């Protein structure tokens, strides 16, 4: 029994061409460009509903 592909022959050809012509992005000049910012500190594991009100 032959399985049908998800895409037609034209679509498969276009996908193959895209993969062949794909170029890698140039690396940035700044070595820290992809370094993420540090996250803000959070309170200990308490739900907001259980927190006491400040008076």
Please supply descriptive tags for the structure shown above.
55 residues, mainly alpha, 24% helix, elongated
Q: Could you explain the architecture of this structure?
A:
It is a single chain. The chain is mostly helical. The chain is 24% helix and 0% strand. The radius of gyration is 26 Å and the shape is elongated. The termini are far apart. The mean pLDDT is 76.
Secondary structure layout:
Layout: H1 9-21
Short description:
Helices cover 24% and strands 0% of the residues. It has 55 residues and is mainly α.
Average the pLDDT over all residues and give the rounded result: 76
The tally of strands reads 0
How much of the residues is beta strand, in percent? under 5%
* Uncertain ranges: none
Give the CA-CA distance, first to last residue. Answer: 74 Å
What general outline do the C-alpha atoms trace?
elongated
SSE series: H
Give the proportion of residues in helices: 10-25%
Structural class: mainly alpha
Radius of gyration: 26 Å
H/I helix tally: 1
Biggest beta-sheet profile: none
């Amino acid at each position: 029994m032959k399985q049908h592909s998800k895409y037609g022959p034209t679509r498969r050809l276009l996908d193959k061409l895209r993969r062949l012509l794909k170029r890698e992005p140039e690396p940035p000049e700044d070595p820290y460009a992809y370094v993420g910012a540090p996250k803000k500190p959070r309170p200990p594991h308490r739900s907001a509903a259980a927190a006491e009100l400040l008076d």
